[in-house]
Design a protein that fits this description.
The protein is 23% helix and 27% strand. It is an alpha+beta fold. Helix 4 packs across helix 7 and helix 9 crosses helix 10. The radius of gyration is 29 Å and the shape is globular.
Length: 639
């Protein structure tokens, strides 16, 4: 827990404005979810997610003034959401107590109430925590965890409350922060990803629940003395360095005792494939990967990994791609890897449906992580690599036994060639990941894999399995490895950022049309990129427009859960407003080659035969597109 400087509370004055208690109560009830979210974000991350949730609710509920009949004095900052002074008062109370909760305990002073575990609310028999978000939410949570409490409060007031820095400074000063300027300056070091503060990752009102130790609760009811003795023994075990909760590490206590569950947690029953099985197997996917790594015989590590998978403790960071269940294994899984990678011990399992990665620091089990990714139906190509390490902006992959060579390539520079990546026991040398880059998109590194079947590109999208990159007409795609495919992808590599954290299996780039520009400055390309997911839904489609000489493509339209630009419906129609070098604005539109005509309605009324349209217009005009295919069927514009 980081220390912080908090000044004494300012005294109220007779001239300060007042607010009625009922008005404060109404504001608290109306804005309760936002106030609890604010408290949750400011509270110290070291409390653990379950205690942070309960403390956030307790602090918010205690923000109501004690007096029911008298009015309550509020600070000079009397404006809140929509100018409501009642909201400003209760927000200040929540912020003040959340900051106090992060103060270190002192030997010669009684702890403040906010520094102690909350008496209420309590949920017996359950542990509550917010839903896990994606890679961007995880990165933001890590950034906020590194800040002091005043700096976290400054960031949250900026992003969640949309307050200007002058108001943030005043609120922090009124809440007792000794140096608001320093807090604002420290908050500047975190990227301004304010929309992420509204995500489920930071919502303590939308929760997941897991049971506590059912057997121990029953024993407590039957024999209090025995429970006290067990608690004392647990305290001794917790004091031992490096072992966490005994042999199960960071796992929660067991709550299911049946033969199948016990078999799934037995390291001796793990499935291990022989090193040469893939050479003769009919099916080549993760099921024929041999067990590799220098810790495949470390029974204690494997036991901890299986136990955490079955019942992750409160301190375990759990993430899963969309549509991936995060429950324990139904039976003994297959071991793919167990070894030391960078500064962690890593274990990778495969249960026929998911790839599961467990990682813990080399010096103990505190800070263990558990990641899940769908992998059912993986082909030989898609089963080429699994992420084993993500450290300092770099990633390492464990490659399939049939992979002969790996390299790093910048997708935005198709003519720059590939830089070889050394393979050590199947693990690649560090590869700079585009997921970690901040600011403008100046490069997009991808993993190039070569085996007996050819060469292909795989893109890191913040998940365990990299996404396969392809080009070509839907239904007739091929790996993006040749010079023409690399040139097709070059202007659109940065658009892969739109697919991070969505469980993407493959992404195809298809140039579906070419269009001569009205000012005779060359021919523009229309490219459709479609991301297919492992779960078979949530496909994302982007129609992009690229002018001659331009470095990047421009997104003209986007859609999700549509068949357009895919094998089931290999057609797409999109339009864009474009300003020529001579000055006039044009509405440009293009459809796939089977488009017989394009019509626009709304701000522009025009019909063109063929699959392209160009109409002079004005800046900011809006129009709707409709196309007619050669078979007579109508299609609408994407998006």
């Amino acid at each position: 827990m980081q220390s912080q400087d908090v000044a004494p509370r300012p005294t109220s004055s007779a001239s300060a404005p007042v607010v009625d208690v009922e008005q404060v109560e109404a504001a608290l009830v109306e804005h309760y979810p936002r106030l609890v979210r604010l408290a949750y974000l400011v509270l110290p991350p070291g409390l653990g997610r379950n205690r942070r949730v309960l403390t956030a609710h307790a602090l918010t509920q205690r923000a109501l003034p004690r007096g029911r009949a008298a009015a309550s004095v509020i600070p000079a900052q009397s404006t809140g959401r929509d100018g409501d002074p009642g909201y400003a008062f209760v927000r200040l109370q929540v912020l003040r107590t959340a900051l106090e909760a992060g103060l270190p305990l002192r030997r010669k002073a009684w702890p403040k109430r906010s520094q102690l575990p909350p008496l209420l609310p309590q949920v017996w028999g359950l542990r509550l925590f917010p839903r896990s978000g994606g890679a961007e939410e995880l990165a933001l949570d890590q950034h906020l965890s590194a800040l002091s409490a005043p700096a976290r409060a400054a960031y949250v007031l900026r992003g969640l409350e949309r307050l200007p820095d002058s108001d943030v400074h005043h609120v922090l000063r009124t809440a007792g922060v000794a140096d608001p300027d320093a807090a604002l300056q420290e908050a500047d070091g975190v990227p301004a990803q304010y929309p992420l503060l509204d995500s489920p990752e930071f919502d303590p009102c939308s929760l997941q629940a897991r049971p506590t130790d059912l057997m121990r609760r029953r024993q407590h009811l039957k024999a209090a003395l025995a429970a006290a003795a067990a608690l004392a023994v647990c305290g001794v075990l917790l004091a031992l360095p490096g072992d966490g909760w005994g042999p199960d590490g960071a796992a929660a206590p067991p709550y299911a005792q049946n033969p199948a569950a016990q078999a799934a947690l037995d390291p001796s029953r793990l499935l291990k494939v022989s090193p040469g099985a893939w050479r003769s197997a009919t099916r080549t996917d993760f099921s024929v990967w041999p067990a590799r790594g220098d810790l495949t015989t470390d029974r204690a590590l494997l036991r901890r990994a299986l136990a955490v998978w079955a019942r992750p403790g409160e301190t375990v960071r759990v993430s899963a791609t969309r549509g991936t269940p995060s429950g324990g294994p139904a039976g003994p899984p297959q071991l793919l890897f167990a070894g030391n990678v960078d500064n962690a011990r890593v274990v990778v399992f495969y249960d026929g449906l998911r790839i599961t990665r467990y990682a813990e620091p080399k010096d103990g089990t505190a800070g263990a992580a558990l990641d899940f990714s769908r992998a059912d139906g993986a082909t030989r190509i898609e089963a080429s690599a699994v992420l084993v390490s993500r450290t300092d902006g770099n990633v390492r992959y464990l490659t399939a036994p049939w992979v002969k060579k790996t390299a790093e390539r910048d997708l935005l520079k198709p003519g720059s060639g590939a830089m070889d990546l050394a393979l050590t026991d199947g693990i690649t040398a560090p590869l700079a990941s585009p997921v970690a880059q901040t600011g403008g998109c100046t490069s997009w590194n991808v993993l190039q894999i070569t085996d007996d079947s050819g060469t292909r590109l795989m893109a890191d999208l913040g998940e365990l399995l990299p996404a396969r990159l392809t080009t070509g007409r839907p239904g007739k795609t091929h790996d993006a490895a040749g010079s023409e495919a690399l040139r097709t992808w070059a202007p659109f590599g940065c658009s892969l950022a739109d697919l991070r954290g969505h469980g993407v299996r493959s992404v195809n780039a298809w140039q579906y049309a070419s269009q001569p520009l009205p000012d005779a400055s060359g021919t523009a390309a229309w490219v459709c990129t479609r991301g297919e997911t492992w779960r078979g839904g949530g496909e994302r489609v982007l129609a992009q427009f690229h002018t001659p000489g331009g470095k990047y493509g421009a997104v003209a339209a986007k859609a999700e859960n549509v068949a357009a630009c895919g094998p089931r419906d290999p057609h797409v129609l999109a339009g864009v407003l474009w300003k020529s070098e001579a000055g006039p604005w044009y509405l440009l539109a293009a459809g796939s080659r089977d488009t017989a005509s394009i019509s626009t309605t709304g701000g522009v009324e025009r019909t063109a035969q063929g699959n392209v349209l160009a109409a002079k217009t004005k800046q900011g005009v809006k129009a709707e597109l409709k196309g007619t295919l050669t078979d007579g069927r109508s299609i609408n514009g994407l998006g």
